[in-house]
Design goal:
Blueprint: H1 8-36, E1 49-51, E2 62-64, E3 70-71, E4 76-86, E5 90-99, H2 103-106, E6 111-123, E7 126-136, E8 152-153
Antiparallel strand pairs: 1-2, 3-4, 4-5, 5-6, 6-7, 7-8
Length: 157
């Protein structure tokens, strides 16, 4: 009987261990890739908002979901937005609100408020919110602005 350096039993055990390690490596790589991939909570049919933040988007706007900053109208914008809801009917965020109507008081210290986007419609094949409301945390106070009174149209293109 011929002796080999590694008995068949050991070779089988080594092969099984290598196969197991390869399988675990594949699972770990797939799991790591899923964890590293950004998690998108919006469904494909969830509306966008047309955002005019920044010079590159000022004229044409950019379709976004859950933006950090948002131009609501030519008079009002919002920043540091924390989205509480974003679904097929409406989107709700809290954040900092500024506008032409409060430049002397809110330019350096933005007002806290709640922004609600609503009334989705399809424009150029893309579903977008078409209305907004703004509610300041402490009420409107001395601020007399149309944007703070009820629902208003939101740019859709």
């Amino acid at each position: 009987m011929k002796r080999t350096s590694t008995p068949r039993r050991h070779r089988t055990a080594i092969a099984a261990a290598l196969a197991c390690a390869a399988a675990l490596g594949t699972v770990a790589t797939a799991t790591g890739a899923q964890a590293a991939a950004p998690q998108h909570t919006a469904k494909a049919d969830t509306p966008y908002v047309i955002n005019h933040v920044g010079e590159e988007n000022a004229d044409k706007g950019k379709a976004e979901r859950k933006p950090e900053s948002l131009v609501l109208s030519e008079f009002t914008s919002a920043g540091d937005l924390h989205w509480k809801q974003w679904d097929n009917k409406k989107a709700v965020a809290t954040g900092d609100v500024t506008g032409m109507w409060c430049l002397e008081t809110c330019q350096d210290k933005p007002l806290k408020g709640t922004i609600t986007l609503s009334d989705p419609k399809t424009v150029h094949g893309k579903k977008v919110y078409s209305s907004f409301t703004v509610k300041l945390a402490g009420g409107n106070g001395a601020y007399d602005s149309e944007d703070l009174k009820g629902k208003h149209p939101l740019a859709t293109s």
